[in-house]
């Protein structure tokens, strides 16, 4: 296929602005998929993606399109829309020369519109603004055009107004792709240089790496090397995605497709890695970094007898997602489990949902935490969430864009929900990593009658320790069953007690209901009480049911 007739592009958008719907229409218009079928988000393959309506893994499709007597190959690289996956977005973008920036005609520019635009802008891609959902009653495409001109400096007459749902004006999008996006700049005669921009795992065939070829050619039987791991593989199959895999003899520079080469798990085909021919090393493509987990949580089987099943489910899921880090962990209260690292909160929820849906696992997920580096005391500006304002810009009369520097632990738990409810759903939010910052953090212990409860040790900001400690003590008081003696629940920093609650003594007389008589019934009840105790964890002489930990850890 002549390089000048190839266009590589992505669709980027804020969540729900219609990226997948537009992709479906493009697939239909080019005859890639059958129009008669009720196509809904064909590229969203996972069940969670369909249910949540979000794209988790990037999917790719090659479309053929005739225009003025010439046949064009349009490679659509679908990118995940959510903040958690911005590294995947930026990698997918490096395989493209242009993007369709989809903006909802009613909602206008949102947080991820801005974040995604700048990823494309930094990668020096041609940006085609597409205003979608013009069929909506409240659509105001002119207002959105003005926003686009003001925020992105793109002349408003470059905007294409469409309804992806109804198919209105989608042909002009195809036309713009051909006219406004340049063909890839590649060298077919140079040695192979291929970017891995996604990878999936197939039980029968191993890892399927999605690749974009910058230089050279690759065919079945070639010996290739991963620039990152330096491992050598033999190529078993290459092909294009239509959107399902279709084997071809070769893949040429400028093309986007897939490659199977006996890689056993996705860590061998990391997103952003460069593949080259054995004995023909090339300069790796810039920008590679290993995915960096930002949010950590403990994961435990609800029932320890499920440990092995859960273990194999986690192994299988991580075969497909190398950005999840896994470490074995155990807790006296919750038993054997793992500490997993995720790119963000949504990533964690999606992983949990996939465990439940695809592997039928029932798990306890502890409150997420963020990575810290131990630093000695220093000062920092403090507000409710310890945020520092960096920038403010009015997008139009009704909408303002604010930029803040936040400690990550302030946004991982309930920030998004609070923001949505405070703004009645109008505000949107995106973040990027700004590196480690010094802060006055302290380790807070929770004590039961003077004994530390390891499971509940947390790191908190000095100024928030009192309120968090108080809330923890109150919650524990509500969840902890009364015992024969009084229990003091305390939160402490070092030797200083900062909060306290008391659980009064109480004796649960299991025999109360047996008016003396029936001895077998008495025995049965005593046995049941003894069994109940097995599930308890003793802290000092205090019995803490597993359930209490689950409640306290889950609702933090
Ligand atoms: P993510 O994959 O989460 O990024 O979402 P998306 O941007 O791919 O959005 P999607 O295509 O899933 O569309 C979101 C919702 O908007 C769906 O309910 C679509 O049916 C609806 N939608 C998409 N395009 C249009 C349109 O042109 N008009 C109307 N009225 N609704 C649309």
Automatic annotation (TrEMBL):
Q: Which reaction does it catalyse?
A: GTP + H2O = GDP + phosphate + H(+)
Give the membrane topology, semicolon-separated if more than one.
Answer: Peripheral membrane protein
Name the keywords, alphabetized: GTP-binding, Hydrolase, Membrane, Mitochondrion, Mitochondrion inner membrane, Nucleotide-binding, Protein biosynthesis
**Database matches in InterPro entries:** EF-4 (IPR006297), EFG_III/V (IPR035647), EFG_V-like (IPR000640), EFTu-like_2 (IPR004161), G_TR_CS (IPR031157), LepA_C_sf (IPR038363), LepA_CTD (IPR013842), LepA_IV (IPR035654)
Provide GO CC annotations from the record. mitochondrial inner membrane; mitochondrial matrix
Q: Tell where it localizes.
A: Mitochondrion inner membrane
Q: Which Pfam families match?
A: EFG_C (PF00679), GTP_EFTU (PF00009), GTP_EFTU_D2 (PF03144), LepA_C (PF06421)
Binding positions (GTP): 13-20, 78-82, 132-135
Record bears the keyword GTP-binding: yes
Q: What GO terms are given for molecular function?
A: GTP binding; GTPase activity; mitochondrial ribosome binding
> Which intervals hold domain Tr-type G?
4-185
For biological process, the GO terms are: positive regulation of translation; translation
Which function does this protein serve? Promotes mitochondrial protein synthesis. May act as a fidelity factor of the translation reaction, by catalyzing a one-codon backward translocation of tRNAs on improperly translocated ribosomes. Binds to mitochondrial ribosomes in a GTP-dependent manner.
Q: Which family does it belong to?
A: Belongs to the TRAFAC class translation factor GTPase superfamily. Classic translation factor GTPase family. LepA subfamily.
Family matches, as NCBIfam families: lepA, small_GTP
Instruction: Write down what this protein is called.
Output: GTP binding elongation factor GUF1
Species name for this entry?
Aotus nancymaae (Ma's night monkey)
């Amino acid at each position: 296929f002549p390089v000048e007739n190839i266009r590589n592009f992505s669709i980027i958008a804020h969540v729900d602005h219609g990226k997948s719907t537009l992709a479906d229409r493009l697939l239909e218009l080019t005859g890639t998929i059958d129009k008669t079928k009720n196509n809904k988000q064909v590229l969203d393959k996972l069940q969670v993606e369909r249910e949540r309506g979000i794209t988790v893994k990037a999917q790719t499709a090659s479309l053929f399109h005739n225009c003025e007597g010439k046949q064009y190959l349009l490679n659509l690289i679908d990118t995940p829309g959510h903040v958690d996956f911005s590294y995947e977005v930026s990698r997918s973008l490096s395989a493209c020369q242009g993007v369709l920036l989809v903006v909802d005609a009613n909602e206008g520019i949102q947080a991820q519109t801005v974040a995604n635009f700048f990823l494309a802008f930094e990668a020096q891609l041609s940006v085609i603004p597409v205003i979608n959902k013009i069929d909506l009653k409240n659509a105001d495409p002119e207002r959105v055009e003005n926003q686009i001109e003001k925020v992105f400096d793109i002349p408003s007459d470059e905007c294409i107004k469409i309804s992806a749902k109804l198919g209105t004006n989608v042909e002009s999008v195809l036309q713009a792709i051909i006219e406004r996006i340049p063909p890839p700049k590649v060298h077919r005669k140079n040695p192979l240089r291929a970017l891995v921009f996604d990878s999936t795992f197939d039980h029968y065939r191993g890892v399927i790496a999605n690749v974009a070829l910058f230089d050279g050619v690759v065919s079945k039987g070639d010996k290739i090397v991963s620039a990152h791991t330096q491992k050598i593989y033999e190529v078993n199959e290459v092909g294009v995605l239509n959107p399902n895999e279709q084997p071809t003899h070769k893949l040429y520079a400028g093309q986007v497709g897939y490659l199977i080469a006996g890689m056993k798990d996705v860590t061998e085909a990391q997103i952003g890695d460069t593949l080259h021919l054995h004995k023909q090393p090339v300069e790796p493509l810039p920008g590679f970094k290993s995915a960096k987990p930002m949010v950590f949580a403990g994961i435990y089987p609800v029932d320890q007898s499920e440990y092995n099943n859960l273990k194999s489910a986690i192994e299988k899921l991580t075969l497909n997602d190398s950005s999840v880090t896994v470490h074995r962990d155990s807790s006296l209260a919750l038993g054997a489990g793992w500490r997993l690292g995720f790119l963000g909160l949504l990533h964690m929820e999606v992983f949990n949902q996939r465990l439940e849906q695809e592997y039928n696992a029932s798990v306890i997920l502890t409150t997420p935490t963020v990575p810290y580096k131990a630093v000695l005391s220093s000062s920092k500006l403090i507000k409710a969430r310890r945020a520092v304002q960096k920038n403010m810009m009015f997008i139009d009369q009704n909408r303002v864009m604010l930029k803040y520097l936040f400690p990550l632990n302030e946004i991982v738990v309930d920030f998004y929900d609070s923001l949505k409810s405070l703004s009645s759903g109008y505000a949107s939010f995106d973040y990027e990593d700004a590196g480690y910052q010094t802060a006055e953090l302290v380790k807070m212990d929770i004590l039961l009658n003077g004994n530390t409860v390891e499971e509940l040790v947390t790191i908190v900001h000095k100024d928030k320790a009192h309120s968090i400690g108080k809330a923890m003590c109150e919650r524990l008081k509500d969840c902890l069953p009364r015992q024969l003696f009084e229990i003091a629940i305390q939160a402490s920093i070092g030797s200083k007690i900062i909060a306290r609650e008391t659980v009064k003594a109480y004796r649960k007389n299991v025999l109360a209901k047996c008016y003396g008589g029936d001895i077998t019934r008495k025995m049965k009840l005593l046995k049941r009480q003894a069994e109940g105790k097995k599930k308890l964890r003793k802290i000092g002489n205090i019995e803490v049911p597993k359930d209490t930990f689950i409640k306290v850890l889950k609702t933090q």
